[in-house]
Amino acid sequence: MHIEIFVPNLPESVQDATLLDWRKAPGDEVAQGETLVELETDKVILDIPAPVSGILRQILRNKGDLVTGGEQLGMLESGITQNSSPIQNTPALPEAAAPEAAPTAPSQPFRQPVSPAVRRLLTEHGLDPSEIPGSGKEGRLSRQDVMDYLAGKQDTAPAEQNHAAQPENHTQEDKSGVSVRHAAVSTPPRSERRAPMTRLRARIAERMLESRQNTATLTTFNEVSLHRVYELRNLYKTRFEQEHGVKLGFMSFFVKAAVEALKRFPIVNASIEGNDLVYHDYYDIGLAVSTERGLVVPVLRDADTLSFGEIEKSVVEFSRKARSGRLSYEELAGGTFSITNGGIFGSMLSTPIINPPQSAILGMHAIKERPVVENGEIVIRPMIYLALSYDHRLIDGRDAVSFLYTIKELLEDPIRMVLHI
């Protein structure tokens, strides 16, 4: 029985998807639920599973093709296996209809589980994953394994190539008859690499340009002592982890402080639609997560109703799913305010870019011990710079500065967030 494989229905905001890779080749046996093909949109990577067990009979769309919702990708033969019925590979298109193109290496399925990032790296360099030792669990390949393998290949280049690259020596005699050797000056090769933007990177570029062109962005800064936050974490971190099964980080404190400040200054939680101001009476906080594919911003829904433990669990889950490209559209849609943390990469100060249609974004930075004056004495405290970028069309400077100062007060006395004072 022939089973057709289709692109699933895409959300209204997504026009099409790019076929990222086939995990199986024509003639391969597949199990029900096993991933057949991966599609990339401007937000997420979609896995298309096999609807039934059988053998992949035909591939109709190839790697790099743009596809739309409901379009047929291939065909499965159900109810048979390799042992019960021989099968012939079916080409994606008839030979007569195929346009002339430069020969390329055939796309082969990967025989061991690898992440999308590793798979793209293997395909780009034409590598066989079975030849590369994996350092992960059960020999699983990591991106670093592939990079180390490539570096090893470069180090063991044939001696003939090295010899050919050596400059030639020319010998001639000067007027006195003395032989003089002149070494030809060689310059290292200058190379360039060109690669198409990923759908996510193109979307990021579009959104950032839209933000710069359509908002009147200003940024205000403040510095915060996290001394009492550190004391609170050190006092309860063991019991917190035992109770909630997750470590007590810093993000939950910043989310709680941001929500409380948004309640006091609702204009920062609002947005502009045409000539109207839309005030949001809920608090959906976007948390920026950096991945190999680019920055994504999953949304923490109704953050005002979540406990510290629930926030920390969501942060860990968002990070895990973002790095594997498995965030859903629902997790990335919407948001009334965002928080981004450049401090994990060592940033000391920056001006974050607003994520439209939101009107403000909070930027966290690296926490450093610095001397500060408290009660007339110089003491060492863990300090952090905070930045609030805001749309000046909607938010006045007084509100922006007061909003950020409220966050500072709550973080420097975190018990107030628990007592709601």
What layout of secondary structure does this protein have?
Elements: E1 2-6, E2 17-22, E3 29-30, E4 35-40, E5 45-49, E6 54-59, E7 66-67, E8 72-78, H1 116-125, H2 143-155, H3 159-165, E9 169-173, E10 179-183, H4 199-214, E11 217-225, H5 227-244, H6 251-264, E12 271-273, E13 276-278, E14 285-287, E15 289-290, E16 295-296, E17 299-300, H7 308-323, H8 329-332, E18 337-341, E19 360-364, E20 368-374, E21 377-391, H9 397-412, H10 415-419
Parallel strand pairs: 14-18, 18-19
Antiparallel strand pairs: 1-8, 2-4, 2-7, 3-6, 4-5, 6-8, 9-10, 11-21, 12-13, 14-17, 15-16, 19-21, 20-21
Helix pairs in contact: 6-7, 6-9
Which structural traits does this protein have?
single chain, 421 residues, alpha+beta, OB fold (Dihydrolipoamide Acetyltransferase, E2P), Chloramphenicol Acetyltransferase, 2 domains, seven-stranded mixed β-sheet, four-stranded antiparallel β-sheet, 21 strands, 28% helix, globular
The N- and C-terminal alpha carbons lie at a distance of 67 Å
Count of all domains? 2
CATH homologous superfamily heading of the largest domain: Chloramphenicol acetyltransferase-like domain
CATH class assignment of the largest domain: Alpha Beta
Strand content: 15-25%
The number of helical runs is: 10
How helix-rich are the residues, as a percent range? 25-40%
Coarse structural class = alpha+beta
The averaged pLDDT comes out at: 82
Indicate the CATH architecture of the largest domain.
2-Layer Sandwich
Number of strands: 21
**Radius of gyration over all CA atoms, rounded:** 28 Å
Provide the low-confidence segments as ranges.
84-111
What global shape is seen?
globular
Major pleated sheet = 7 strands, mixed
